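Q: what sequence does this backbone want?
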């Protein structure tokens, strides 16, 4: 099994959009208030660029796209970023790909000067929550002000000084 991770480019937009929407639906993240419904999902490569202090990585197994993960400023903040849209197809789970994607995104965020990283997710995504806890994210009792994902019910934050 050959695993490769590359930054998003326009040629991967349609496939990653399908994966985000499919995996989102698997966990009930459908409609307003959930990441898979964000407009950016239709053209991720246009929304995740170094100029925007953001990065979206795409994972491949044996040349086939199996998922991705990104990081971007939270509401334009220069101190707080957001880990976004970690979605993996079932066949790629449990292989360390989510950890690799997340770690690379968090390292990028730290290099961009962000101090903290926020995320929101669903309590049905237990394997993702477990990963986030292992990475150093801590649970919050409420979302950060300004979150656009009001359908989520788990909110987490970590200091990027810890990585």
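A:
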């Amino acid at each position: 099994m050959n695993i490769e991770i590359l930054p998003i480019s326009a040629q991967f937009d349609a496939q990653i959009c399908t994966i985000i929407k499919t995996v989102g639906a698997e966990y009930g993240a459908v409609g307003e208030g959930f990441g898979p419904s964000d407009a950016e999902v239709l053209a991720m490569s246009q929304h995740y660029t170094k100029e925007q202090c953001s990065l979206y990585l795409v994972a491949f197994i044996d040349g086939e796209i199996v998922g991705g993960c990104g990081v971007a400023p939270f509401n334009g903040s220069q101190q707080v970023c957001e880990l976004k849209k970690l979605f993996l197809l079932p066949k790629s789970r449990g292989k360390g790909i989510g950890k690799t994607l997340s770690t690379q995104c968090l390292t990028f965020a730290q290099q961009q000067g962000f101090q903290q990283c926020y995320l929101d997710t669903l309590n049905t995504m237990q394997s993702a929550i477990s990963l986030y806890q292992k990475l150093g994210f801590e649970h919050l009792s409420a979302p950060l002000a300004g979150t656009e994902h009001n359908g989520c019910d788990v909110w987490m934050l970590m200091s990027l000084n810890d990585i």
